Q: What sequence folds into this?
């Protein structure tokens, strides 16, 4: 049996020494030292050895087992070492194969971001009709018939006497009528105005309206909210300035100018060479509007703002033509 | 509104550089983004909001410049008009609905000639062409004071009668610049004994205009009904400097002052003498009025405390004559500031002159509302659908809601089912779409070179319910159908049925189907009708689906975790052949129903009429033995043979 053991050992040594990877080593280990391995089966046959020789054969087997284990472990270390030391050349520059994935529309992408920022500030998102009545779109917002403010909001009329809403502000009084303050509301949506289509105009455009009513909502809260949101959207380095303006449904009225993100204020065609982009009209909700929404203006106050949303998307991606957003050309869509 | 710097300096000192002035004016509401050089002069180009008629004048702008610098305006000094003992005859018959105040005077023996250089220069600097001394002075004073004026040739006013009426519509009128108009109904007109001599508030008439030979004039300043002026000028497509002022409602208390100023300047440059008293017809007395500002309300609304001395200083700089009384400031609002009606208007006055950009930035402090608001939007399903589509290789598009009659017809739809816009920008955008598919089909046309997968999520009309639609070309049907299966599986929607017909003609008559749940339609899928493809010029095979998001939403079942089995599955592939027109979805459902031990059935291969199914058997109780699996397999073979004439291969 001794001879058998020696032969086995030599055979195993030879195999281990010529092994080229760790997987092969593992196979060799199983072949000799595994549950049904060659060496293991010799141990099982120790009964066949005459009793006086058993101890000698036993220690030879144990010694052989130890030797094999040591050699396996040394060889494994040697192989691992050689793998790292070989400095095998491999081309990582080769282009990968991309999983085929679609593209989210840039407007929807930014919209999700805007909703998230406002949800963080405690706003709930509301959704309203695009087919609207003259009352909610104009009258309830202090814009009676023949008010000059209607000039800039040329309206589409429908055969059923309704209109297509010209502003998401149409939702202010709708929500107020049915919701007791306090509330913070965000209304994203599409609006329609009678405008000929060109690079900076369209008859359909997106706005995000927001308004908040509480016991002590203040003008500084409005300015703070605008600043917070625009810095979240355009980065902390975004520069803003506020100016007075007039909308019939707010008092005081605010216009927000964002320093042009393209020329950084130097003046470029994008900002009509002014260095600034008018981006977020706002103001404290006019007491008459609160009254129309059945809210007592001496008890509650609030602010409202509108984000010219298509414009935000354009500024973000430096899109110089509004029509790009509604062109379903994959060469455009696949850029986002 | 054009404001030449040198003209502005007549009334107020300017203590800051031009760039600073432009921004400070913008900050307080007179948006001034650019200047022009006219005749070598710097001229501010100011956008005037609809509520500020007073900013339609150089003096009005000067008042604001004074406020931001805390200086005073120097108004032009007025001379006392010498009223003669006997007035020349003139009879004014007013209609107060049309003209709320009418102030006039007669000057005789004037000499019409070119204006002096200083006056011509002023008019040129606001892009007006000098005409003659009298007309130029009325224009000058309109720009200076923001009150429109008009001078008539007194001797051309037949019967010395002026009668205000509303046009019946269709009357002919020739304006002082020789252009003829047909008047719209309810335009404000002034007639003499014989004819229309003035389109009040918009343009004077040629017949009574100032001529080279004019000797005597009737000057007037009227404050007209802004709505009537607006309607008439829109109907005529005629906007004049005067109508722009009238639409905003000029200072009704300022007409006598303006007349006085014009008289002073005419006597100075055209000679002559006043030959009537000042005629002043008004429906009531227009006087400054009190408006109260509570200091605590001011700080509640603004969020900062501006000390009361500063509040008073700001209101005083705007010439609102503030008086502090306990914790209230009472202002005396001049008639030219008729935009100031409520306390909040005064709050804005204080805030804007204080400077919006000096306010601290804060966030609302109240508690966040817990209850849902009205019109609450749950967009979670839309988000999920968008994720599934994009992960599946589909790109999102956004298309117009407005479509043309041609698009509807090309889609084999009916215009009667669409809401129509009565005043569209063009025929191309006239109807509100009832489906997203036509836009997507057109989108494939734009991209016809490429193999494309597009989707859109948007409202359709008239219900304004959200749909998700997708189109794909260049893919096998099963690859396309897989996306629908994925949507239904992931939401999840189960127990839906498929009906092998569709009601809209946009679909291929036999290669399209309706998905229903509880008898409600979820949507449609299949091939686009070849006629529709032809109409849109699409050559490739085009698969599409359109699902109703609200219906999907209502039928979503909450996902529930099912424990996994600890025993190994047995997996085998069985191939069957079926006769033509066998619906494989039914076959698969039938296999599944054979035994509870069948965990999953998948179609893994199709070759001609042979279908290979991968069947996974698994038990929760034990490792399945071959005998059990064999029994189930034989049952499957028997059932498929009996019910579908399927033959095992």
A:
């Amino acid at each position: 049996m001794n001879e058998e053991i020696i032969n086995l050992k030599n055979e195993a040594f030879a195999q281990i020494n010529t092994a080229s990877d760790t997987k092969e080593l593992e196979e060799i280990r199983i072949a000799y030292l595994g549950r049904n391995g060659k060496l293991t089966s010799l141990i099982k046959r120790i009964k066949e050895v005459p009793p006086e020789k058993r101890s000698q054969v036993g220690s030879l087997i144990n010694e052989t087992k130890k030797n094999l284990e040591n050699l396996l472990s040394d060889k494994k270390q040697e192989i691992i070492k050689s793998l790292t030391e070989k400095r095998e050349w491999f081309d990582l520059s080769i282009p990968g194969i991309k999983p085929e994935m679609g593209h989210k529309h840039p407007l929807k992408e930014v919209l999700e971001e805007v909703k998230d920022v406002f949800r963080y500030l405690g706003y709930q998102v509301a959704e309203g009709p695009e087919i609207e009545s003259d009352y909610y779109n104009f009258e309830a917002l202090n814009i009676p018939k023949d008010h000059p403010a209607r000039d800039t909001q040329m309206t589409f009329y429908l055969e059923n006497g309704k209109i297509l809403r010209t502003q998401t502000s149409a939702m202010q009084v709708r929500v107020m009528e049915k919701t007791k303050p306090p509330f913070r509301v965000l209304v994203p949506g599409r609006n329609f105005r009678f405008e000929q289509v060109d690079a900076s105009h369209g008859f359909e455009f997106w706005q995000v309206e927001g308004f908040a009513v509480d016991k002590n909502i203040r003008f500084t809260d409005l300015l703070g909210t605008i600043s917070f949101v625009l810095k979240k959207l355009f980065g902390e380095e975004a520069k803003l300035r506020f100016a007075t303006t007039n909308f019939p449904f707010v008092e005081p009225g605010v216009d927000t100018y964002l320093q042009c993100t393209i020329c950084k204020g130097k003046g470029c065609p994008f900002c009509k060479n002014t260095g600034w982009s008018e981006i977020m009209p706002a103001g404290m909700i006019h007491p008459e509007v609160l009254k129309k929404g059945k809210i007592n203006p001496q008890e509650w106050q609030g602010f409202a703002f509108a984000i010219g949303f298509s414009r935000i998307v354009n500024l973000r991606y430096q899109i110089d033509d509004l029509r790009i957003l509604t062109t379903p050309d994959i060469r455009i869509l696949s850029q986002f | 509104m054009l404001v030449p710097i040198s003209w502005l300096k007549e009334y107020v000192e300017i203590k800051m550089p031009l760039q600073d002035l432009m921004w400070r004016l913008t900050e307080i509401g007179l948006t001034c983004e650019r200047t022009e050089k006219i005749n070598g002069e710097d001229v501010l180009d100011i956008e005037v909001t609809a509520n500020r008629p007073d900013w339609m004048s150089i003096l009005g702008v000067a008042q604001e410049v004074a406020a931001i610098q805390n200086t005073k305006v120097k108004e032009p000094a007025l001379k006392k008009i010498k009223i003669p003992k006997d007035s020349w005859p003139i009879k004014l018959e007013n209609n107060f609905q049309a003209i709320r105040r009418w102030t006039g005077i007669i000057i005789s023996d004037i000499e019409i000639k070119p204006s002096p250089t200083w006056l011509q220069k002023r008019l040129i600097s606001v892009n007006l062409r000098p005409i003659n001394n009298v007309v130029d002075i009325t224009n000058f004073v309109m720009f200076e004071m923001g009150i429109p004026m008009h001078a008539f040739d007194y001797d051309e006013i037949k019967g010395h009668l002026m009668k205000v009426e509303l046009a019946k519509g269709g009357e002919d009128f020739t304006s002082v610049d020789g252009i003829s108009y047909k008047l719209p109904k309810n335009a404000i007109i002034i007639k003499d004994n014989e004819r229309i001599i003035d389109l009040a508030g918009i343009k004077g008439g040629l017949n009574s205009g100032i001529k080279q030979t004019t000797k005597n004039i009737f000057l007037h300043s009227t404050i007209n009904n802004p709505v009537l002026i607006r309607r008439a000028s829109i109907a005529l497509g005629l906007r004049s400097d005067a109508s722009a002022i009238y639409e905003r409602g000029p200072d009704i208390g300022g007409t006598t002052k303006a007349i006085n100023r014009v008289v002073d300047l005419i006597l100075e440059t055209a000679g002559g003498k006043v030959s009537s008293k000042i005629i002043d017809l008004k429906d009531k007395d227009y006087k400054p009025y009190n408006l109260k500002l509570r200091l605590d309300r001011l700080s509640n609304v603004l969020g900062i405390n501006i000390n009361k001395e500063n509040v008073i200083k700001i209101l005083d700089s705007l010439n609102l004559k503030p008086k502090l009384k306990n914790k209230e400031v009472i202002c005396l609002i001049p008639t030219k500031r008729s935009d100031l009606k409520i306390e909040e208007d005064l709050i804005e006055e204080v805030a804007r002159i204080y400077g919006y950009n000096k306010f601290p930035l804060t966030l609302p402090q109240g508690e966040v509302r817990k209850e849902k608001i009205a019109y609450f939007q749950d967009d979670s399903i839309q988000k999920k659908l968008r994720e599934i589509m994009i992960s599946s290789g589909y790109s999102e598009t956004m298309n117009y809601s407005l479509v043309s009659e041609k698009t509807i017809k090309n889609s084999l739809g009916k215009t009667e089912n669409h809401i129509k816009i009565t005043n569209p920008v063009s025929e191309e955008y006239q109807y509100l779409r009832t489906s997203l598919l036509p836009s997507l089909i057109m989108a494939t046309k734009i991209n016809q070179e490429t193999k494309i997968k597009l989707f859109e999520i948007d409202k359709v009309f008239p219900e304004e319910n959200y749909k998700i639609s997708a189109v794909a070309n260049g893919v096998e049907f099963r690859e396309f159908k897989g996306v629908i299966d994925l949507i239904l599986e992931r939401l999840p929607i189960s127990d839906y049925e498929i009906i092998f017909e569709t009601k809209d003609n946009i679909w291929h008559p036999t290669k399209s189907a309706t998905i229903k749940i509880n008898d409600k339609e979820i949507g449609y899928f299949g091939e686009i009708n070849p006629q529709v493809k032809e109409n849109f010029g699409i050559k490739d095979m085009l698969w599409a689906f359109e699902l109703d998001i609200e219906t999907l939403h209502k039928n979503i079942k909450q996902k529930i975790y099912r424990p996994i089995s600890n025993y190994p599955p047995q997996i085998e592939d069985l191939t069957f052949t079926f006769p033509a027109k066998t619906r494989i979805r039914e076959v698969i459902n039938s296999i599944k129903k054979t035994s509870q031990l069948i965990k999953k059935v998948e179609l893994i291969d199709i070759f001609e009429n042979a279908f290979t199914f991968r069947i996974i058997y698994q038990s929760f109780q034990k490792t399945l033995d071959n005998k059990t699996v064999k029994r189930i397999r034989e049952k499957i073979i028997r059932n498929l043979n009996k019910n579908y004439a399927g033959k095992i291969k």
